[in-house]
Amino acid sequence: MSEPILEISGLTKVYRGGLKALDNVDLTIRKGEIFALLGPNGAGKTTLIGSVCGLVRPTSGRIAAFGHDMARDWRHARARIGLVPQELSTDMFEPVIRAVSYSRGLFGLPPDKARIEEILKSLSLWEKRDERIMALSGGMKRRVLIAKALSHEPDLLFLDEPTAGVDVELRKGMWAIIDEMRARGVTIILTTHYIEEAEEMADRVGIINNGRIIKVDEKAAMMAQLGRTEAHIALAQPIAALPAAIAHFPVEIEDGGSSLCYRGGDGTGKGKAEVAELTKALTRAGIDYSGIETRESSLEDIFVSLLGEKEAAA
């Protein structure tokens, strides 16, 4: 297991008026991983990022980055952290290359034309380097935000909704860029409303709701533990009740008896095997079927299910 690069313990943020945006959050981020933080609007994602990046002052708790306590030695740690914020407000009247170069200087690094050129080329911004940011498309403006965050060569990069408002092709391009950053050893924490992004890229996933971390796990382990198989079996002839031969399967009659719905498994392949056994039992019982549709849970299904369980328990 790789060393921790960020350690958060007991982090709480209460705003004036009593709103508790973060509630005793514990979280450890490992060096070199992509960590996806998922949660509905208002869950506390941006407040958590702001607390680490020095934009929000926590009410209590401890944050340590690269071994430095952020409350006592924030300058050393902050210089190694990059942030791509949600908002597109940036130096709209500045040419791209000047804005990115200026961001590098803010962290006390000397000018490095070759490095800035490398960053802009990697983000397909080199041809736009002399254009004012205000003249760029929304997707290109977001790439400028990433370039600015990378200009001081951070070891830990926060991406707060990095693909919000961009089309599918640009989103896929962003995924490739994030993959390249990870290959260079950058640790990445991203928040996203597009859960397929987390499913595509993340090593681990954390789910936050009402300021609390509900669950953190390896993506594959989470999907194995909480994933399910769902199968819809179209029957050749309607049935009024489940035959005894299949009553022990997790199956229900639907569509007035014309189909069966199986929901089971545990994300490890058990569900598919059980669906195969179910179809054999149907055949032995003399029940014909005309088609089967099977699907596995996505990370989004698991996310929605976990939030639903927490809301029901509240």
UniProtKB/TrEMBL annotation:
Keywords: ATP-binding, Nucleotide-binding, Transport. It holds the Pfam family ABC_tran. InterPro entries: AAA+_ATPase, ABC_transporter-like_ATP-bd, ABC_transporter-like_CS, ABC_transporter_ATP-binding, P-loop_NTPase. One of its GO terms (molecular function) is ATP binding. Residues 6-235 form the ABC transporter domain. This is ABC transporter ATP-binding protein. It comes from Altererythrobacter arenosus. The lineage of its organism: Bacteria, Pseudomonadati, Pseudomonadota, Alphaproteobacteria, Sphingomonadales.
